Amino acid sequence: MVGKIIDNYKISAILGEGGMGIVYKAFDLRLERFVALKILNEKSLTNPNYIARFKREAKNQAKLTHPNIVPVYGFTEDDGTIGIVMEYVEGETLEHLIKRKGHLELAEALSILKQILLGIGYAHSKGFVHRDIKPSNIIINNEGVVKIMDFGISKSVNESTAITKTGVKIGTILYMSPEQVRAQEPTGQSDIYSIGISFYEMLLGKAPFDYESEYEIMEAHLKKNPIKLSTHFSDIPAEVDNIIGRALQKTLERRYKTCSEFLADIENLHDDITLPPVQKKNKKKEKSKAKTVTIGREKPENKRPLKSKIRFYLTAFVVVCLFGGLFYFVYSTVSQFWRVSEAGRGFGSELRPGAAAGFRWRTIASPTVNSLNSIFFVDNSTGYSCGDKGTIVKTTDAGESWVNIGDTAGTNLYDVKFVSSDKGFIVGERGIILSTNDGGKSWQKFTYDTAISLFKIIFLKNNYTGFIVGAHGTILKTNDGGTSWIPVPSSSGQLLYSISFADYNNGVISGWNGTILKTSDQGKTWTEEKKLTDTYLRDICFGNDNMGIIVGGSGEILRSDNGGEEWSKINSDSFSGLRTVFFSHYGTGFILGNKGEIFISNNSGKSWELSNSGSFSALTSITETPSKKIYISAGNGTIISN
Ligand code: ATP
Ligand code: MG
Q1: Alpha helices in 276-414 (DSSP H)
Q2: Cross-strand bridge partners of residue 468
Q3: Contact of 558 with 566, CB cutoff 8 Å
Q4: Ligand 1: which residues within 6 Å by Cβ?
Q5: What pLDDT score does 313 carry?
Q6: Minimum-distance ligand to the CA of 140?
Q7: Which CATH class is domain 5-87?
Q8: Is 203 left (phi over 0), alpha (psi -120 to 50) or beta?
Q9: How many helices (H) and strands (E) does the chain have?
Q10: What's the rounded Cα separation, in Å, for the pair 121 and 129?
Q11: In this structure, what are the phi and psi dihedrals at residue 37, rounded to the nearest 5 degrees?
């Protein structure tokens, strides 16, 4: 495409790609200026709804003139190519800025937030709802001016027909308001919610409800309150939490009604707040911060023009970052060295130096960059892994090479198990159960319930009795090797993540909000056990008839010595969430972490020591071949083996 002339636009570079097409930098030969040209992709072209949406985007945007909104120049239709022509903004998207910096300082975030509110407030006053506010649709130009893009799926509230009403779910789920989750018509207040989420992401570095499954995210929008930032960061005052709280109210009555109401609270913030008292611990660092990043309005005699103020803040921020970066580099180098040299480091009741030394890990590429969520080896050479967006990969040469055999469902797939070399199952989002009888050449799809994500599938040693667990307290059981699945009544309405059996009769399920369910009758009935934590318990595994380990999303480790009758917390110094626990046939225990950690135990899970995986990506699942080789799937689409 680059070099081609469309209409009177000469394409010069690719700027990025989104859901509807590729955005190019192009030169307008007639007006002799650069423009951005968003060209509809073929997939969208075959869909008349998309074309209508696209044309509407051009029309809508052209009606809006505001310094914080990217102006649309026009629309081009040339030889089957449909494109929207807009101002070329030289700058950086907010998404990229957050990624690059990790998170933004309060002063910078507030400055961006204000400009977003001014632009969106203006659009609302003209009767437009944006509907898809998110950091990738906000670009900050080289002068620091915020420009909002993509009123692509916005719709004039005066317009009576809504293409988006046809059941096509529109907008990115992380930023979606509760009413959009419920498929209700969005209003200006829905934009306010999405702005609130984006502001939160600026400060924290990630969105408040950034969970794995769509289901969890949607549930959180409907029911959960995000953690208060002021309780974690000394430079964020409680007033900021209150403002976020009002923007993120679940009900429209309690949420800010207008952007100007939202803005007024921010203006007040500038008037009233200086940085909170310096914490003793960080006295030195905080002091210099307090001097440079004061968010209180400057005294009149000290008034600076906005631009130089921004530049001043940015410079100060860069200096702080540089020092922080240097400190972090030195710290991480030293601690990495510490980790490697001090083989006995780990956690638990006793330290056992050297136990993990026997493992050396190497990373194997796979044909996908999608997150791999589960891996399973049938024998020494044949293995399968499944992941996001319908990804299924297979190896027949002991993991040396992998081929994509993914089905086209596009649904996130969470777990794979095989009961023989031909017969296997995969479960995933939207109640999907895939089964194969020919080693993955073909898959039959069965949908249990599209509203329920299924997270885990296991078979007991006989390969006939099996269980699937999922959202809404779902437990399915098979007695015929997976031919039929029957729902088992469960007292829980929570997300159930994982299940493991100590022996044929006694099994345990772990889930959301500290849920532990126990059965003593082969999974016919389940009772809820005493709660030991409020966070989610991501995985459970029994190492033998008595000993089991549960790991949690906040780094907890629970251990049982009596077949799951009682659980007690064992000391964990893991900073990140723990994702998976597994005991090999030989009794070695493995815990995988969300930041690439592998902890190993050789004493029945009493203590765990860190083994360097070489990966910083979440490690999601682990399997062992009969010849004792370990394979681990990772969130970045790679596979790790010893
Ligand atoms: P979605 O399709 O959901 O909107 P998106 O926002 O990531 O997703 P696009 O809107 O297609 O995708 O934009 C893709 C990228 O192109 C943007 O992230 C941005 O980097 C770049 N881009 C888009 N419009 C412009 C513009 N007017 N000027 C400069 N770069 C732009
Ligand atoms: Mg966009």
Answers
A1: 283-292, 306-341
A2: 457, 476
A3: no
A4: 15-20, 23, 36, 38, 70, 86-89, 93, 136-137, 139, 149-150, 152
A5: 65
A6: 1
A7: alpha beta
A8: alpha
A9: 11, 40
A10: 10
A11: -120, 115
- For the chain, the domains span 5-87, 91-274, 307-340, 344-349+364-641
Alpha-carbon dihedral angle through residues 388, 391, 392, 398, given to the nearest 10 degrees: -80
| Top mutation candidate among 12, 82, 88, 136 for ligand 1, by most atoms within 8 Å of CB | 136
Say whether pTM exceeds 0.85: no
**Percent of the chain scoring above 90 in pLDDT:** 42
- Which pLDDT belongs to residue 356? 52
Question: Ligand 1, atom 15: nearest CA belongs to which residue?
Answer: 16
Task: Using a CB cutoff of 5 Å, list residues around ligand 2, an ion.
Answer: 18, 137, 150
> If pLDDT is split at 50, 70 and 90, which confidence band does 287 have?
very low
Whether the CB-CB separation of 432 and 413 falls below 8 Å is answered with yes
Active-site annotation holder among 28, 78, 79, 132: 132
Proximal ligand: closest to the CA of 147: 1
Tokens encoding 336: 């990495």
Asked whether the predicted pLDDT for residue 155 surpasses 90, the reply is no
Q: Is the pLDDT of residue 407 over 80?
A: no
Sheet bearing 548-552, strands edge to edge: 537-542, 548-552, 557-560, 568-570
Q: Which two tokens stand for residue 373?
A: 């969520």
- Higher-confidence position of 338 and 279: 338
Domain covering 344-349+364-641, topology: Methylamine Dehydrogenase; Chain H (2.130.10)
Q: How many CB atoms lie within 10 A of CB 21?
A: 22
Which two three-digit tokens encode residue 308?
């130089």
Are 454 and 472 a contacting pair, CB within 8 Å?
A: no
Q: Is the pLDDT of residue 157 over 70?
A: no
Q: What is the CATH number of domain 91-274?
A: 1.10.510.10
CB 245 within 8 A of CB 197: no
Element (H, E) at 576: none
Look at 545 and 501; give whichever has higher pLDDT. 501
Mean pLDDT in residue range 62-86: 85
pLDDT in tens, 292-326: 332 322 222 333 345 555 566 666 666 665 666 56
**Spacing, Cα 271 to ligand 1 middle (Å):** 35
Strands 372-377 vs 383-387: parallel, antiparallel or unpaired: antiparallel
Quick: pLDDT tens for 471-482.
989 999 998 889
Sign of the dihedral defined by the CA atoms of residues 175, 157, 243, 179, in that order = negative
Please indicate whether residue 539 is annotated as part of the active site: no
* Higher-confidence position of 255 and 576: 255
Task: Specify whether the CB–CB gap between 423 and 438 falls below 8 A.
Answer: no
Q: Ligand 1, residues 142, 149, 151, 168: which to mutate, most atoms within 8 A of Cβ?
A: 149
CA angle 204, 141, 205 (to 5 degrees): 10
> How far apart (Å, rounded) are the C-alpha atoms in residues 596 and 599?
10
The mean of the pLDDT values for the chain is 81
CB burial readout 530-541, b (16+ within 10 A) else e: eebbeebbbbbb
